[in-house]
Design brief:
The protein is mainly α and about 90 residues long. It has six helices and no strands.
Length: about 90
Amino acid sequence: MDGAIALGYSDDAVSLALKCTGFDYALAARVLEALKDTNRLPREMRGCWTEEDDADLDRSVDARRIRRLEDKHGKEALERRWAFLREFFKK
């Protein structure tokens, strides 16, 4: 992602794109383009986890919210995201 910084993306934008995609570089590049165009994370992009998505995954007991995550990201992606967040926030 050093190339993204060389293209003028801020460190913060690159960090956000990597975090919300679980360090999927190809997807992070698409997120950076969306950030450049709209100045916000794409809410409907599969694999792009918003703060709301992460909060629902972490704390929700509402089956509808979990179902929304499954529909957006795929059922298998929920377990991968859990593992990513545990590792990312490990102290």
